[in-house]
## 1
Amino acid sequence: MLKEVIATRYITPLREGGSLPGLIEADDLGTYVLKFTGAGQGRKTLVAEVVCGELARRLGLRVPELVTVDLDAVLGLGEPDEQVQELLRSSGGTNLGMDFLSGALGFDPLAFPVDAQEAGRIVWFDALVNNVDRSWRNPNLLRWRGELWLVDHGATMIWHHNWPAAEASAQRPYDASDHALASFGPDVTAAAERLAPLVTEDLLTEVTAEIPDVWLAGEPGFDTPDDLRRAYARPLLARSAVIHERIHGIEEAK
C-alpha cells in the first residue's frame, strides 16, 4: 500500500492547472504536492493518479513517490485566499501527495533532447492509459537530476467516467500527433515488445490494490471496492496487447 503520512503544515498553493494543488509538509518531514479530494475533478482524478503513477513506476518509468496524506481541514485556516480555504475545508481526510522534486525544471523539447527509446516508452505508456494531457503545450514532464520524470496523470483512463461504455471507449486508438515527445521519433514498437508482456493481471491487481478504499466506495454499479478495482484493470490488460498498433500521428524512428 502507499505510504501514509499526516499533513503538518500547509505551505502554499501551487497555481498551476485547474485543481489548485498545494505544497505541504508532512510528519515524515517530507515535502509533497498535495492533490485534494475536494477539487472540482473529484476523487476519480486521484484514482487515476495512483493507477497510472504506480503502473508507470512498475514499468520502469520515473514517477515521484506517491503517498496518501491525512489532512485536517483546519490546517490552512490562515490561508488568505478564500478559494484555497474552501478547498481545504472540503478535503478533510485522505488526499494524495506527490514527492516534491525540489529544483526540477519543466520539460523543454528545444533544450532537452530525448532518445527514441525513452520517447517510445513514454508515448506507449500514455497510449495505454489514454493520457490526453502530455502535449507540447502542457508536457507534464519534469527534468530532475538529468532525467525525465512523469507527473500529473489525472486526465487519463477517460472510460472511468462512464463505466457502461468503458469497454468500447478503451478500444479507441491514440492520437499522438500533439504529444510532447512526438518529434523525437518515439520507438513505440520496441516499447511494446518490452513493456506489454509486463502488463499482466497480477501486476494490475497489485497496482489497483494501492487505491484507498475510501476513493472507491459508493461507485454506482459496483458492490465492493475490489469489484471496481477489477474494472480498472480489465481495459488496461486488453489495451496493452494492441495499443501500439493504434497509435497515430507520429513517425517512428527507423
Note: The chain has two domains: 3-99, 105-248.
## 2
Amino acid sequence: MNYFAKIKYLGTHFSGFQVQPGLRTVQGELCTALEAALGAPCRVTGCSRTDAGVHAREFCIKVECDGATVPPEKLSVAVAKFLPNDLCLFYAKECENDFHPRYDAKSKEYLYRIINERVFDPFEFERAWFLPREITDEGLASAREAAVHFVGKKDFSAFMSEGSDATTTVRTVHYLEIDRTERGIDIRICADGFLYNMVRIIVGTLIEVIYGRKTPEDVAMAIASGERSRAGMTAPPEGLYLNSVNY
C-alpha cells in the first residue's frame, strides 16, 4: 500500500530530513517506526530537504510498504508509539503509485519566527531567532518595501548557498508577508520551490534592511546581479518552519 501522510517535527535534534549515515534524521526515524508498526520495510519519500535545526508544522511524505494492511485512517495511531516525542504523523490517506510528494507539490509556505524582546525567553530556545535590538516601524516599513522585489518569477542565484544540486535557479515567489506579532515578527514566504538556504538568506537580508544596513534598492540590485555577496546574511535555522504544502 502507498500512503500520503503529513508529519510535524521539532528539528532541533535532527540532522535534517534526509537519511545520513551515523546521524539522527527525520527520514531515518520514520523508516524505523513505520517498519515496526507495519511489519515490513518501508520506503519514505519527503516533500523537501530541511536543514539541521529547521522545524516543520506540515511536512508531506509518501510511504511505500508492500503488504501493509493498516488502513490509512489508523496509521497515525499505529505508528505513534514507535515515534520519538519530537516527531509525529498526524494524517494519512492512500495514494497512487506515481504520486511524488516533492515533484507534485504546487507550492510550499515557510514561516520564519523572530522574537524581538530585550530579555531572552528560554521557552523559545531553538524555536525562534532572538533579536533584542528593537525593530522599529520605520525599519519594518523598509523591509516590506524590499519584500516586494522578491515576488514573481525571478532568478534567485544571489539567495542560494553553495552545495545546491538545483538544475535551475529560477523560482516563482507567490507572496512574502511580514507581520508584526505581540513578541516580534513573522515572515511568511510561499513559492513554487526554494533553493538551498533561500528562505534563510532572504530573511537575513530583510533583517539587514530593518536595521538600516541595506536598502530596498540594494535588494533589487542583489536579485538582478545574481551574486551571493550582494545579498545579506543567512538567518539561523531555529526560526524556520515548513508551514504548509499545496498540491
Note: The first helix runs from residue 26 to 38.
## 3
Amino acid sequence: MMAEKENVMRTLVIEKVTANIGVGNAGESLQNAKILLERLSGKKAVSTKAKTRNPVWKTKKGDEIGAKVTIRGPGAVEFIKKSLVARNKPLSERCFDDSGNFAFGVGEYIDFPGAKYDPKIGIIGYDVAVTMKRKGGKRVSSRRHAKSKIGAKHEITREETVGFAKEVLGANVA
C-alpha cells in the first residue's frame, strides 16, 4: 500500500507574531517600552494609539498609549520559543481562539533568555499574539481583485493550532 501524501498547501505556518506593551500614556514609560521591545525582538517598535476616548484613564482618541512590534519569518518562531520559556507556565486552552490564532502574556521580561535587567526600564511584562495561516489560500479572502471565500475544510481549527504549538513550538498546553 502507498502512504497517503500530506497536502503541502494545508500545512500550518506562522503568518506573524505581534509583541505588545500597553503603557497607558506617552512619555518616558512609552519610550522604555519601545526600547525593550526592540531589544527583545531585534525589530523596530512603533507606538499604538487610542481608538476611543476614555475619561476614566484620561485618554482621548489618538493618544499614544503603547508600543508594539511585528515579527515575520524565521525570527518569529525563535521569538515565540523564547517567550514561552519566559512564561514559565503552560498555555491554557483559552489562549487559542476558534480561528486558529493564540496569544499569551509574559509577566517579566527578565525571564526572556538573553535579556538583562535594566534599572532604567524596570520590570515590565508584554503580550504575544500569534497569527496562523495555511501555506496556500488565505490571500484569496483579503485581496482586492477577485476576492473569494475560503472553503470550510481549509479553515484553521483550534485543535490544529494546539497540535502545532505542541509539536513545532514545544509549548506545554494544559
Note: The mean pLDDT is 91.
## 4
Amino acid sequence: MDNKVLGLIELLDKLPIPMYGISDISELPELKNKFTRAISLAQAYSYTLDDYSSTGFNDFLLGKVKGELEQSIEIIEQFLQKENIAYRTIGNVQKDPVLSIGEFSHKYAAVKSGLGWIGKNGLLITKKYGPRVRLSTILIDLELPYNNQDEYNGCKECNACVNICPTKCLKGTIWNSSLQREDIIDVFNCKDKNETRKEYMCGLCLVACPIGKASSSDNKMIFTKSRD
C-alpha cells in the first residue's frame, strides 16, 4: 500500500474522532478528475431531552463540538499539505441559503461510506450514536481503500422525531437511496429554517431519537473497515 495512504489511515485512527468513513466519489460528474474519495468525520456527543434548551443546544453544538472537530480537521489538512495531496474541506455554510443546499452533502458521503442511514428526521443516524454526531467532509485526490454503504435502516416503526416536531414538517417516510429530501421533510416548514436559525437551533427531532442514547462521545469507536 502507498506510503501516503498508510500515513493518512494511521493519522485518522489516532485522532479523537469516534467515527470516520471513506467513500468513493470518483464517478460524481461535478468532481470527476478532481477528487476520488470523501473522508467523512463524525464527532459524537451526548445530548438528551433532559438537557434540552434551544439556546443551550445551539451553544453546545456550535461551540464545544464544532471546536473539537475543527481541531482534528486542521491536523488532517496539515498532513495533506505536507504530502502534496489535493483536497477540499467542505464547510457548513450553505451555497444556496434559500434552498438550504450546501456545497457538498455531508450526509451523502457519510451514508455512502457506511456510517449510517438517513432517518425520518432527515439526519444521518448512526447505530452507536444515533443522530448525535456532527459531520464534516474532506474531499481528496488519493486512492484510499473505501467503505461500502450499509443498507441497514433502524428507524422501522419509530416516530419519535415525527411526533415531537413542532411544525409537523416530518413526513414519517422510511428512507431508501432512491428518495429525495422532499420525500422526508418539508424543509421550508422546519422551525430551524423559518424561525430560529439566526439565534438558535430547534433540534428536537435530533435529541428525541432513541437510537444510540446509551452511548456517549467518550465511547471510542474508530470506523476503518476497508473495501475487500
Note: Residues 3-207 form one domain.
